[in-house]
Amino acid sequence: MPDCSSFTCSPAPLTRPARFARWMRDHSSLIRRIQWGVVAVYLFLIIVPALRPLPDDHARILNDLTTFAQFLFWGIWWPFVLVSMLLIGRSWCGVFCPEGALSEWASQHGRGGAVPKWAKWGGWPFVAFCLTTIYGQLVSVYQYPKAALLVLGGSTVAAMAIGLFYGKGKRVWCRHLCPVSGVFGLLAKLSPVYMRVDRQRWQHTSTGRVIPINCAPLVDIRRMQGASDCHLCGRCAGHRDAVELVARRPNAEITSASSPTPSAWELVLLVYGLLGVAIGAFQWTNSTWFIAAKQGMAEWLIERDILWPLNDNAPWWLLTHYPERNDSFSWLDGGMIVAYILAVAIILGSWILLWLTISAACQQGPLKDRLLRTSDTLIPMAACGVFLGLSALTASLLKAEHLSMLWLGPTRAALLGLATLWSAWLLWKQTQPQPMIHRILAWLAVSPAWAGVLYSWILLFWLW
Ligand code: SF4
């Protein structure tokens, strides 16, 4: 360790991650070229399939562009973007995300207005995630290219419009409004790398000329703690000799008492969003409860001679409408899908919140702080669930290729088991400073929440 008591010491040799981040900083034009390359692939994948006729029953990944794009986009790209958050933080956002790159580019040429108050509302990540997830189900975003173009293209246009109006070379969209930014921020808490800011060094190395950093997602770099907000673009690497990319234990941010307390909106996004709305959205197509409720409702309507909800005449951009594929949602379908997803979110989310609160009450310290910190321990289960839900499409596309899927069930079970053990371990480590009896009670109290989440996935993958 260098002696930095006077802050005139020579810095310690740079670690490999720190050197890599500085290399990124010094090769920003290469990163920009990568971003434009991803933009080109992204636009091709969302636009070209939407202009082609729907694939027939013989279409396969390797002989049909639309099916290939569907597999690449939803089967590989999205699930593994989520996994990348756990492995390399939000590098996806800072280096590869086409929407972020386009929003920043638009902002460079836009009006440059101040970020409005409404955009800074802390609930946007939750609301945007829920609305996009539910709307995606209504228009069958994973199945139909036109729907994918509408949802993803609409989001990209909105990101560019926000860029045109607000910020100068910034990513106001990514910071405040992106539907998955909050989710990525939660998952990045488990990242084994992050940008560490040495506050003391920052204050004491300001003698020379300090070059301002353009942090596109508007992070307050000086006060930055943790990996949630940083897009790991590398631009601030080495700034004031105080900011470096460093490796850490993946559990550190959640188990350390010195980490910032999560916000209430982060809890809501985790409990009612990732562990509620997302599970409901993945579940409804297979749910026997959904089918029974829909049949019951249809009979109820028919008995009263209310027949219009049974029509399937909604346009494709409102409800799935592909008569040539015998796939059209009636108004009743649409209403029931929304009701089912919201019911799962409210019931499962409230169940989880109840046991988290009881667990927090079993611990010493302010209840709100304990509750918010305890909720973070569920991130591995939430991440695993979303990955399994998204990769269900990967599995069904591979099944259509006649690939053996015998490994699928055991792999799913193993991942769910490991994620639960990880969450349990996080809680155990997080409560380490507490007396043993408090730790045990807190741990036991949260176990019904784990059981609720596991049961939801068991229903979907094995019982229905
Ligand atoms: S703090 Fe900002 S500038 Fe620094 S790496 Fe993160 S996103 Fe880039």
UniProtKB/TrEMBL annotation:
It comes from Chitinivorax tropicus. GO terms for cellular component: plasma membrane. This is 4Fe-4S ferredoxin-type domain-containing protein. The chain crosses the membrane at residues 34-51, 71-89, 121-142, 148-167, 264-284, 337-358, 378-398, 404-428, 440-463. InterPro entries: 4Fe4S_Fe-S-bd, NosR_regulator. Residues 72-111, 159-190 form the 4Fe-4S ferredoxin-type domain. Keywords: Cell membrane, Membrane, Transmembrane, Transmembrane helix. It is found in: Cell membrane.
